[in-house]
């Protein structure tokens, strides 16, 4: 509970409709973050959900989307009522974010044509390879245009009926406002964006339309894509139908402005104040990815790197790993069950904290142990499917500390391989910020990540708030951007959001750096074992 005087100020802001709501649909959790006029989190709500593997396609049903959003919003409202004694009916702004990429295709009557194909699917190899060669620009397997073109290559029956396609954030925003738009950051994961125009790359669209015409004459991809908007531009207002979708009780009022919907990469950049050149961030969840804002375009095409943009449209190199903290979570659950069987049950946070602290006591190289967190395929290492593995040699040192250090190292292994490619391009980073639940246990994952990437890693007080807080900040930016001579996004974050932010910075420890380098050599060599497992099991 907040202190009484603070609670009164927050209560007044909520009643006056000056609070701002951010909602992010992550891979395992939908989270809502309510922030006050000072951008500080004042309430939250969440809903746990999981993707499903249906007919070898990773998906979520649209019913699950809305059931999850409604439960998440209801929990946020309940949290507000418990803390402040009021129930919010309106907000100064709303923002929607979600996991990037994937494929949601609709017909002219706005009916979903095929089940939602998430970023986790890796069945688009032929399309991604052909488009990468055509554009001279890396098109990863999970990008929306790769899904669309693969459907065209496979002559899927739904293709002639496609009227528009979008991402998960774009879909939710559309249903809330009636507008088919995307923030430029999320759009850049659908189709390449030109950083000069802050819109889809016109030359590449023309190239794609010429290619598609050979198979589907008259199908213009540009006509299927959502409109692109930069941060700070209003992207519509909550309709009566949208309000009822989010809040079936009828208390939520329509008319609230929404910012452009963004992807989790963009909200991660905002949540860590890393939208300026030579800054970067690492977001750790079900997937894990690093974003580095570039000073210049890369010299070569690299399959390990995406080129996307900030929510303002500046060019960003992304190292995206399909597999993040899920395997760590599974092992934590096993240890939690063991504690309960001993008659000493512990909550998930306590289990994680205990295991993570143990990791700091392990040998710098993990004692010869090896772990792969591959629940899904991993394009960076060329694997179409995943098999979580723990491997050791007879002379390795199997202790709890080494086991846990190896598991954390395993979560960062593929990321480190991608970061090496950036280093070879001469990309320099002044500051690296980290956010996500993996960093809730103070000083552990942060320190080991610094070792993995060989750079200082900063974590702020909003690190565990993540993307829901980031999209709330983008929604709050609507008001500032509308001011005469309003600030650009970077200035807004520096001067109004993070001016007094306290950061905990972990410098790379020489021993950890050397130990991780040894581990990564073993990790790279052991990929042959991982690859064999996908064939044998």
Would you mind describing this structure in some detail?
The protein has 537 residues and is of the alpha+beta class. The protein has 16 helices and 24 strands. It is globular. Helices cover 39% and strands 18% of the residues. The chain has helices at 4-15, 62-84, 125-135, 144-153, 168-177, 184-187, 202-213, 240-246, 264-271, 326-341, 348-359, 400-424, 445-453, 466-481, 489-497, 510-536, and strands at 20-25, 29-35, 41-48, 52-54, 57-59, 93-98, 104-106, 164-166, 181-183, 193-194, 199-200, 227-229, 262-263, 279-284, 288-293, 306-309, 315-321, 370-372, 376-378, 383-385, 389-391, 431-435, 457-460, 503-506.
Strand-helix topology:
Elements (H helix, E strand, L loop, with lengths): L3 H12 L4 E6 L3 E7 L5 E8 L3 E3 L2 E3 L2 H23 L8 E6 L5 E3 L18 H11 L8 H10 L10 E3 L1 H10 L3 E3 H4 L5 E2 L4 E2 L1 H12 L13 E3 L10 H7 L15 E2 H8 L7 E6 L3 E6 L12 E4 L5 E7 L4 H16 L6 H12 L10 E3 L3 E3 L4 E3 L3 E3 L8 H25 L6 E5 L9 H9 L3 E4 L5 H16 L7 H9 L5 E4 L3 H27 L1
Parallel strand pairs: 1-6, 6-13, 9-12, 14-22, 22-23
Antiparallel strand pairs: 1-2, 2-3, 4-5, 7-8, 10-11, 14-15, 15-17, 16-17, 18-21, 19-20, 23-24
Helix pairs in contact: 3-4, 9-14, 10-11, 11-12, 12-13, 12-16, 13-16
């Amino acid at each position: 509970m907040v202190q009484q005087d603070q609670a009164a100020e927050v209560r007044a802001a909520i009643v006056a409709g000056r609070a701002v709501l951010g909602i992010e649909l992550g891979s395992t959790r939908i989270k809502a973050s309510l922030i006050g006029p000072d951008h500080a989190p004042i309430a939250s709500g969440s809903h746990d959900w999981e993707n499903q593997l249906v007919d070898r396609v990773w998906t979520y049903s649209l019913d699950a989307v809305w059931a999850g959003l409604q439960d998440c919003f209801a929990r946020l409202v309940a949290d507000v009522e418990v803390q402040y004694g009021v129930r919010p009916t309106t907000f100064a702004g709303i923002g929607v974010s979600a996991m990037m990429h994937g494929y949601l295709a609709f017909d002219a009557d706005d009916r979903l044509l095929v089940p939602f194909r998430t970023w986790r699917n890796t069945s688009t190899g032929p399309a991604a390879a052909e488009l990468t060669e055509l554009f001279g620009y890396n098109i990863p397997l999970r990008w929306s245009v790769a899904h669309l073109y693969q459907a065209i290559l496979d002559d899927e029956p739904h293709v002639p009926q496609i009227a528009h396609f979008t991402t998960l954030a774009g879909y939710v925003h559309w249903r809330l406002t009636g507008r088919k738009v995307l923030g430029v950051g999320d759009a850049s994961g659908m189709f390449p964006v030109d950083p000069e125009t802050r819109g889809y790359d016109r030359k590449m669209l023309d190239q794609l339309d010429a290619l598609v015409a050979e198979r589907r004459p008259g199908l213009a991809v540009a006509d299927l894509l959502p409109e692109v908007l930069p941060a700070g531009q209003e992207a519509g207002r909550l309709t009566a139908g949208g309000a009822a979708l989010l809040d079936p009780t009828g208390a939520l009022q329509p008319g609230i402005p929404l910012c452009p919907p963004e992807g989790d990469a963009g909200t991660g950049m905002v949540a860590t104040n890393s939208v300026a050149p030579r800054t970067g961030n690492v977001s750790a969840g079900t997937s894990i990815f690093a974003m580095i804002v570039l000073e210049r375009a890369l010299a070569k095409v690299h399959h390990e790197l995406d080129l996307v943009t900030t929510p303002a449209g500046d060019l960003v190199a992304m190292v995206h790993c399909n597999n993040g903290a899920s395997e760590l979570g599974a092992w934590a659950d096993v240890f939690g069950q063991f504690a309960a069987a001993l008659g000493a049950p512990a909550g998930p946070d306590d289990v994680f904290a205990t295991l993570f602290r143990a990791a700091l006591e392990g040998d710098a190289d993990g004692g010869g142990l090896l772990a792969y967190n591959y629940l899904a395929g991993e394009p960076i290492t060329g694997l179409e499917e995943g098999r979580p593995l723990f491997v050791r040699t007879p002379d390795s040192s199997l202790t709890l500390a080494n086991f846990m250090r190896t598991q954390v190292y395993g979560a960062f292994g593929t990321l480190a391989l991608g970061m090496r490619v950036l280093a070879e391009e001469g990309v320099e980073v002044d500051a690296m910020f980290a956010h996500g639940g993996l960093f809730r246990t103070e000083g552990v994952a942060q320190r080991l990540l610094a070792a993995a990437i060989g750079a200082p890693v900063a974590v702020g007080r909003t690190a565990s708030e993540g993307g829901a807080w980031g999209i709330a900040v983008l929604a709050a930016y609507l008001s500032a951007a509308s001011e005469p001579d309003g600030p650009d996004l970077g200035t807004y974050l520096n001067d109004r959001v993070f001016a007094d932010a306290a950061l905990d910075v972990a410098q790379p420890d020489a021993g950890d750096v050397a130990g991780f380098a040894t581990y990564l050599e073993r990790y790279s060599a052991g990929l042959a074992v991982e690859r064999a497992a996908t064939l044998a099991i």
